[in-house]
From TrEMBL:
GO terms for cellular component: cytosol. This is Acyl-CoA-binding domain-containing protein 4. SUPFAM superfamilies: Acyl-CoA binding protein, Kelch motif. Belongs to the ACBP family. Residues 641-672 are annotated as: Disordered. The gene is LOC104238460. It comes from Nicotiana sylvestris.
Length: 672
């Protein structure tokens, strides 16, 4: 008897939310937000989890604001009330996502709170059911696959064919190719790119943990292998941290560029990493200019030699709708100012470039809702527009993936806060017409958020390759779709009927042929009947002529009206041109005046500078004069003292007995 293995299939919502709430300490009691929660998380994290739990279980906040003397209750009320009318399903998903960010290993430690369904899988059994056709769609019933390296492959749902890929001749259907080698860990929000017949997968999110491994799938042999990265040995080499929500872009034929993404310790600005395939080393790309804020869930699109980055969500969970361009030739960042109305702030949208000029943004989500709007940015005029979509417009979604094949943009996957999106759609970027390529049934990886989609060539045919995703359980499945001929991928809803004028020409041709046939038969009675018919048809012809004249008159009147409107528009255009010329002339005069003022200001500044130099020199001279004056006063005092001492000495030396005997007065003695 074959051995049986018990494996966990993961929890879907809302069971996953309730398991997370129980693990976090929210047991439904009034004080559950303060028992066991604050000890596990920061105050801000605990408040946000409380608000999301209340929003998911109770609904929008409708209670009155508590009194000011209770700061804790007031903070809880403020946090809950700030969520507004957020849907309960969105609150559940955000609760689990924030818990995964705060405590990445919660799911593995939540065995006491999680009661998962068990799936009995028969090991060492490689039986695959035969494909059948149902309503023109190739289907495959559930199959059982043996465990590989301890990782059990989950049962496949319907609508995914699994057999030798080279033998499948169907187009526009998803196919599961025969995969070999050690499969990567299941994940979503990873990056994917194709270089030299290999699809590279980097990073992602698994059970709340960010990943940093680099995996490669050989698209010729469909074999997985892990890319062994060399450890950092030089200053330019780095050890890459785990990322999720980033973008992976092929570059120069042998390099991979990873742009942005969420990480445990985010930097202030967006980081750009480069992996050198021959050297098998990571390095940080040195850029110039002002880089964007750090973010994840953004879109990165290659337009010529530039990367166009739009939207996303920053490290503080704030949604963005800014536009930045990184020139890969100069490695310079530019934040672009745009005209028109840009898309609302969003993340997890899809983007594509058409004709190297137009950037298309479709879908995405905010904290409360998902979108299905289409926005177009002209990269030459940098003006946003929202064109009218044709055909069957896809439903709102976020977390979907897209890839272009010629002028067709294929989009698959995504979610709408309720379930995964099951249809794969295509947009003709020239006509803006949508059509549905195929639809899958059941909870399969193709109906997931955060999956990847790349374009590659197999047996000289374009194929789409999807990997991973999350729809309540993480996936590491690979699926392939062969699109039909590019020229026939227009929407069936866009097929236009044959114009009336064409039908009229065909009818007239048939009537002429009938008339010629009757003339060739040459019977006189038939010719007379035709003549009579022509005579009787003259009133009808006159009526048709009158109708034609009225239509012609109406067309002439409409033409005159249009010409009049055109003349007015031309006059307005001329007036605007004249106003523009006058404005340019005024601008020129103002510029000249500004230049004159600048010249005068420069001259005044020069004079001021010279005066400042003169003042400084005078100050120095004044200081030297003061010192000389002090020295002069000192010398004068010294001279006076010297003279006084000399006079005193003279008086003493000229007096005495002899002077007294001679009777010479002292004054005379001094004079002598």
């Amino acid at each position: 008897m074959a051995a049986m293995a018990r494996v966990s299939s993961g929890l879907a919502y809302p069971e996953r939310f309730y398991a997370a709430a129980a693990y976090a300490g929210f047991d439904g009691s009034p004080d559950s937000s303060t028992k066991g929660v604050s000890s596990k998380f920061s105050n801000d994290g605990a408040l946000l989890l409380y608000a999301l739990y209340q929003q998911a279980t109770v609904g929008p906040c409708k209670i009155r604001k508590p009194r000011s003397w209770s700061p804790v209750e007031q903070s809880k009320w403020t946090s809950w009330n700030g969520l507004g009318n957020m849907a309960s399903t969105e609150a559940m998903r955000l609760f689990v996502k924030i818990l995964e960010e705060e405590d990445p290993g919660w799911y593995s430690r939540a065995s006491n709170f999680v009661s998962e369904p068990a799936v009995q899988v028969e090991k060492n059994n490689d039986t695959i059911a035969e494909p059948v056709t149902e309503n023109g769609i190739v289907l495959l019933e559930t199959k059982t696959i043996h465990a590989e390296n301890g990782n059990l492959s989950e049962p496949q749902d319907k609508d995914v064919v699994s057999e030798g890929f080279g033998t499948v001749g169907v187009y526009d259907q998803w196919v599961a190719p025969p995969i070999s080698g050690p499969r990567p860990k299941a994940r979503y929000e990873h990056g994917a790119a194709v270089i030299d017949d290999k699809m590279y997968i980097f990073g992602g999110n698994h059970n709340g943990r960010y990943l940093s491994d680099l995996q490669a799938l050989d698209l010729r042999s469909w074999t997985w292998s892990k890319v062994e990265v060399k450890t950092a040995g030089e200053a330019s080499q780095v050890q890459v941290a785990p990322f999720a929500g980033h973008s992976l872009i092929p570059w120069e034929g042998n390099k991979l560029i990873s742009v942005g993404g969420h990480t445990k310790d985010p930097a202030e600005t967006m980081q750009v990493k480069v992996f050198d395939l021959p050297a098998r080393t990571w390095s940080t790309l040195k850029t110039y200019g002002k880089p964007p804020l750090s973010r994840g869930g953004h879109s990165v699109t290659l337009a010529g030699t530039s990367l166009v980055i739009f939207g996303g969500q920053d490290a503080n969970r704030s949604l963005l709708n800014d536009l930045h361009i990184l020139d890969l030739e100069t490695m310079t960042w530019d934040e672009m100012g745009t005209l028109g109305v840009p898309p609302s702030p969003r993340s997890d949208h899809a983007a594509a470039v058409h004709a190297e000029r137009y950037l298309l943004i479709f879908g995405g989500g905010s904290h409360a809702t998902c979108f299905n709007d289409l926005h177009v940015l002209d990269l030459q005029t940098m003006e946003w527009s929202r064109p009218t979509q044709q055909g069957e417009i896809p439903s709102p979604r976020a977390g979907h993936a897209g890839v272009t094949v010629g002028e067709n943009w294929f989009i698959t996957g995504g979610g709408n806060n309720k379930s995964g999106v099951s249809e794969t759609v295509v947009l003709n970027m020239s006509t803006l017409g949508w059509s549905i390529v195929t639809t899958v049934q059941g909870r399969v990886p193709l109906a997931s958020e955060g999956l990847s989609l790349v374009l590659c060539s197999y047996n000289s045919e374009d194929i789409l390759v999807s990997f991973g995703g999350y729809n309540g359980r993480y996936s590491n499945e690979v699926n392939v779709l062969k699109p039909s001929h590019k020229s026939t991928l227009q929407s069936k809803m866009m097929e236009t009927p044959v114009p009336d004028s064409v039908s009229a020409v065909q009818n007239a041709t048939n009537a002429t042929r009938d008339l010629e046939s009757e003339t060739v038969t040459g019977q006189e009675g038939n010719i007379r009947e035709i003549s009579v018919d022509n005579i009787e048809s003259e009133p009808m012809v006159s009526k048709v002529e009158e109708t034609s004249e009225r239509l012609l008159a109406a067309l002439k009147a409409e033409k005159e009206e249009l010409e009049s409107s055109l003349s007015k528009e031309k006059l307005q255009t001329l007036q605007l041109k004249q106003d523009l010329t006058d404005a340019e002339a005024r601008n020129t005069d103002l510029y000249k005046e500004l230049q004159s003022v600048r010249g005068q200001l420069a001259a005044d500044q020069s004079r001021c500078f010279k005066l400042e130099v003169d003042v400084a020199e005078l100050k120095q001279k004044l200081q030297s004069l003061e010192s000389l004056k002090k020295e002069l006063e000192l010398l004068q005092r010294q001279k006076a003292a010297s003279e006084q001492a000399l006079n005193e000495k003279r008086r003493q030396s000229s007096g005495g007995v002899w002077g007294w005997i001679a009777g010479t007065p002292p004054d005379q003695q001094d004079d002598a």
